[in-house]
Amino acid sequence: MRIISKTIFSMLSALLLCFLPFLNNTALAASDYSIEILPEESVSGYRQAARDPSWYTEEAVYDRLMAMQSGYPEGMPYTNNDSYENTYLWHGGEYDGYNVHYTGRGCAAFALIMSDAAFGSDMPLWQEYNVSFSNVRVGDILRIDNDSHSVIILQVNQDSVTIAEGNYNSSIHWGRTLSSQAVENADYLFTRWPGVPQPSTYTVSYDANGGMGAPAAQTKKQGESITLSNVRPGRDGQFFVGWAESASAVTAVYQPGDTFSQNADTTLYAVWAIPDFILPASLTSIQDEAFAGGAFHFVKLSERTLSIGEDAFANCRNLLYIYIPAATEDINQKAFGETPTLSIIGQSGSAAEEFAFRHNCPFIAAS
Question: For residue 243, what are the domain limits?
Fold first, then answer.
């Protein structure tokens, strides 16, 4: 639930006031904090430009929090009333239609400084009183110890959180852990995650392009990558050689299992290849230079082919694909010299795949 005007007192007296560690059992006076209502134009300079949603991933928030260690090193003296920077003017959002600045001290000031570094000072806070360990996230501020201390979460572990805090034994401290039970015993938390812009989503669709068995569509988020489906369509008499963004493509751009990163709705069309040179079943061994210089585009070897000789398909500059069966175990290292556009189609784990890997040649697993 977003903070509303009736919660203003609790926030100002708790989050933005961090009591001294009860050395003299005296709480800070009201003069140690303030709230100031500002006209819209006076805060416009604090409103930051809209960011890509990927700026708000938990990994990115964590990195920005940890980068603050250089300015706030472990053990740095940090209390409510010393000569170090311990008062912070926060430019963070609205209450009941008013733009406001809050001034916090000590642990509260440190938590807000860290929060602004992680999320930007234009992001409002939400307050939650029923704290559930399953819902806490990196960058959330916990109010603990009977509403007397503020900490910020650096990491959420399996059954604990790792925190950073100011005014812990009168200094900055990084890396203390709180158990999941301690988290749920917190007085409340402040979070900025509800205000984080959600990434746009895009649909990646598959078109079998005359074949059958296209994969189901996938959804990807702005700035994130997905792994393309490993499902392969089929088509009688033709070989599936991958996916392209054009239905008329003759070469594939993507293979099943590839990484896809485009931020746009996309349809991927199956690319099919039809052999224009099929070798007979009686040909079990392809001799040296047997088909060198040939003008074919797609060669299909017989399932009984056992070997391919030196320069057997050398200088076949139009050759896009060759199907090599699992039975072919002897492939000369120079079998395909000067074939710059060649992709090898074969069975996973075959000699053909090993040859392709060793020669940096694209390999397409046969359906």
Answer: 201-273
> DSSP label at 129?
S
Q: Which residues contact 270 (CB under 8 A, 6 or more apart)?
A: 206, 207, 208, 209, 210, 211, 214, 233, 235, 240, 242, 243
How many CA atoms within 13 Å lie on the side-chain side of 101? 15
Query: Could you tell me if 353 and 273 are in contact, meaning their C-beta atoms sit under 8 angstroms apart?
Result: no
Contact residues for 163 (Cβ-Cβ < 8 A; gap 6+): 142, 151, 152, 153, 154, 175, 176, 177, 178
Task: Output the CA torsion sign for 354, 355, 361, 363.
Answer: negative
Any residues with CB less than 8 A from the CB of 158 and at least 6 apart, and which?
Answer: none
For 278-316, the pLDDT digits (tens) are 999 999 999 999 999 999 999 999 999 999 999 999 999
Residues 90 and 135 in one domain: yes
> Which DSSP helix (H) or strand (E) runs through 355?
helix 351-358
When divided into structural domains, the chain yields a total of 2
Neighbouring C-beta atoms of residue 307, cutoff 10 Å:
17
Strand 98-105 to 87-90 pairing: antiparallel
Single pTM value for the model: 0.49
Q: What are phi and psi of 297, to 5 degrees?
A: -105, -35
| Same domain for 217 and 123 | no
Cβ atoms 109, 88 nearer than 8 A: yes
Kindly tell me the burial class for residue 112, based on how many C-beta atoms sit within 10 Å of its own C-beta (0-12, 13-18, 19 or more). Answer: buried
Residue 76, SS3 per DSSP = coil
- Amino acid letter for position 247: A
Same-domain status, 176 and 205:
no
**Tens digit of each residue's pLDDT (9 = 90 or more) over 308-340:** 999 999 999 999 999 999 999 999 999 999 999
